[in-house]
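Standup notes, structure subgroup. Blocker cleared on the S-adenosylmethionine input:
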Amino acid sequence: MKNQNIFDNKIFFDSYMNLRDGANFNDLLEQPAMRALLPDISGMDILDIGCGFGANCLEFSYKAHSVTGIDISQRMLETAEKINCGGNIKYMKLSMEDLSCLPSGSYDLVYSSLAFHYAIDFDRLIASCFRILKKGGTLLFSQENPITTASKNTDNRYVKDEEGNVFFKIADYQSEGERHVKWFVDDVIHQHRKVSTIITTLCKNGFIIQECAEPKPAKEAVKILKGLSRDLIKPSFIIFKAKKGE
Ligand SMILES: C[S@@+](CC[C@H](N)C(=O)[O-])C[C@H]1O[C@@H](n2cnc3c(N)ncnc32)[C@H](O)[C@@H]1O
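Run returned:
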């Protein structure tokens, strides 16, 4: 099975970059939660998987020893090279599905923001993350919450009862695999995996899970972006911080 690489679709890419330009879920919800779990990155060698346009790579580069950003999207990488470059940052076109060219035991932190739900072979990805980390190294990643990716039909997922209480409908949770969603364009492919699969895959590959977070928006954030109030009902994202033992 081949990765979709939707971020190289021009309509999708332009819409996504436009979304990231305004108030968005990344800056107001996902990033504050990821920053809260970030270890002290001073002097670290960091790999950012699915680095996109490189905003996190640039941020890390001020303190880290080296930052490597990998992505499959040429458009993303060109943008990263243009707007988020720096002396200790290296960008590479590489799929997270095949990290075999990266040397074993070479990173203190493997980081990924909202990219792992595109991985088809999650077990292979996690095994690679373990292999390329130094002993004692950290894997920190966020992805779409399985509650969000579960339902195959994403129409009218929020329902209100007579008293005005809002509910989020979940179906198909037990059925893992591809989900085709409309996000700027038709047929964007995400992979649905159960929470138990994520946890078991991490543990089976030798990781020690340190924290798991399902970020809830701050009141101030909801004032800035009203749509975030939906995350008071159910989480859009899930974050795992795991360690490779000494
Ligand atoms: C939602 S964006 C997040 C970008 C960046 N991490 C951020 O938070 O700004 C997801 C990124 O994952 C990349 N991606 C998707 N599938 C990938 C794969 N198989 N290997 C590497 N990158 C991938 C996309 O091209 C895109 O840049």
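Discussed briefly. Residues 3, 7, 26, 50-52, 55, 70-73, 76, 95-97, 113-115, 118 surround S-adenosylmethionine (CB under 6 Å).
Next: hand off to the docking folks.
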